[in-house]
Amino acid sequence: MAPTLLPKVSMGSSEFSRIPLSERRKYHKLGTLSCMSLIVNKMIGTGIFLTPAIIFQYCQGNVGLYLFLWLVGGIIIFSGLVICLEFALNLPFTNGGEKNYLLRVFRKPKGLMGCIYSFQMVILGFSSGNAFAFGKYVLFAVNGEEIKEDEWSVKIIGVLCISFCVFLHIKFPNQGTSLFNLLGVFKIFILILIIAIGLLVSIDLIQLPDTVNNFSNLFEATTKKDNNYYSISVALLEIIYSFKGWENANYVLLEVADPYHVLTIAAPSAVVITTILYFLVIISYLIVIPKEELLDSGVLVAGIFFNKIFGESITSRILPILISSSNLGNVMVVSFAHAHVNQELARNNYLPFSKYFEDINHSLLLHWFVTVVIMIAPPSSEIYEFVVNLYIYPGTWINLLITIGLIYLHMNSRGEKWGKYNRRNELESNSTNSSIYDDSDNLILQLNDDSYTEFDSLISMENDNDTSKFSAPIICIVIFLLSNIFLAVFPFIPPPSDSSLSQLIIPYWCFPVVGTSVLLLGVTWFYFRRWLYTWKYDKYGIGESKVKYEDEYSTS
């Protein structure tokens, strides 16, 4: 088996999450800076280089609304981060992210939310948008301009991109990780370069052939059409796509040396820094590119930005290659992280053929297959917008359920023992039969490794740090709740008949219907798995994996 970068631990994940942090640290090597890099590298992917022009089109060229929506998007993302932090800091430090939060609140039927989340993560957690964008920028660098009729060439390059990433992770996992860490440096460099160019243009140290004045009449729409709720909701979905990755550290807490420090320092710092950089990049685009060209730039806004500055020169060809390398890094990160999430879901029997996908290589091939299908199937002319919306939309329902669940926990904190300490420090790391007590020394759970599952861990145990428990502010909960209700409902409302959105080849209702249907497919799988999944290797029930980490993390 090919070596991995994860630690060798000779115990199951649920058992391992119960040992004290002081003992767990010797197994791990992800520190605060590494986790910040993990978040920033995923957040700064393709979104900021591709979606700004699409969002500007949804805003009808209204600069004031455009900037306001980016600001709102940043606030929504930070509110979501705060909510996830409360869950993460009040539950065992283990892998899984949102799956654990859903299972903690929605406990009956047992495992239903795990199945719903697994289908959303596996079927819609693809890298199609990033791989497609890689192909776009590679062709742009070769041809010096966008050739909209050559979409199949873009798709072929995108397939080669995801194939290369999966091959690298399977055959050379250490080298693959080193490569996407290196590519992450380019992302920061490009953002800083764009911001610096925008600043130099604004103070006239760089002269443009044409005068750009996008900041006069801020709230005047170029297209002379009124903005509607549908276009604004889709624009917000696109903005949230640009911020995707803020939750990345929550997926791998089992591999982190000091999860509390990472969650309270690294994650918020990474999100704030990236949000500031994003907003400055958006302003730089508006300083350099006229409204009319921004409305017609498709997904190559960064390429047009560099053409405006450097003209049709070799530099304008090289910089899009750097952007495509950023896209490549994002595909590598997403394929790596999501494959490990798929593997974790398979270990707990949430997926069809779970035994097969417990192998990390098989989970990588599953991610490759879904990515290729989603990238090739839609009509070429609208693939990127559709893929982005389909990737993000189901997450709004997951976020909505998590927020409702947190409100429930706040309202029933005593009955749910939410935010209360459990004496996990008293547990021996090598104990095979221990007990958990509440603050009144009442027995909550008799721990036995033969019957212990992830449900027991999430429901009855909390973190063993000695610091105060974190609680999300009410304003953040309200913002995240209302925003996700808006984002979940309004894509179903048809756009005005005179809107260009009503003339799309892919109907407006397609991505919300497909996204919601995938979640319902998880419900169907939960109720019918006992008839559909009867092979002998289904030894354990749902959520009851006893897979030994030593088998997977061997270096032989």
Automatic annotation (TrEMBL):
Keywords: Membrane, Transmembrane, Transmembrane helix
GO MF: L-amino acid transmembrane transporter activity
Gene Ontology cellular component list: membrane
This protein's record includes keyword Transmembrane: yes
Membrane topology reported for the UniProt record: Multi-pass membrane protein
InterPro entries recorded: AA/rel_permease1, AminoAcid_Transporter
This protein's name: Amino acid permease/ SLC12A domain-containing protein
Species this chain originates from: Debaryomyces fabryi
Subcellular location, record wording: Membrane
Lineage, highest ranks first: Eukaryota, Fungi, Dikarya, Ascomycota, Saccharomycotina
TM spans (from-to): 30-55, 67-91, 112-132, 152-170, 182-203, 260-287, 360-378, 390-411, 470-493, 505-528
